[in-house]
């Protein structure tokens, strides 16, 4: 779950960084600063996914990424796509961890 979540957050951060390049010519400095800070926070959050609070922070950040659509309109759609990927990373990650725990338990019983 951690690896999938970190992958989504890092890719989201990179995509947001490229969107900032689009916002430079059309938006005020507020949009550029907002996007830059958000990209840095997304990248940093990928590192704190070792704790459960990292997933809560990542979930809240998905709302802020969608809100970046007010500065770069295509980010309404991109934000929804990344929010879906974030949810899928959590769901698939939990299933993967459960399967891994089951496999580890069966290996421990054999030994």
Automatic annotation (TrEMBL):
Q: Which InterPro entries match?
A: DUF4233
**What sections of the protein cross the membrane?**
6-24, 31-49, 61-92
Transmembrane helix as a keyword of this entry, yes or no, is yes
- Put simply, this protein is called Unannotated protein
Write out the entry's keywords from A to Z.
Membrane, Transmembrane, Transmembrane helix
Which source organism does the UniProt entry give? Answer: freshwater metagenome
Taxon lineage: unclassified sequences, metagenomes, ecological metagenomes
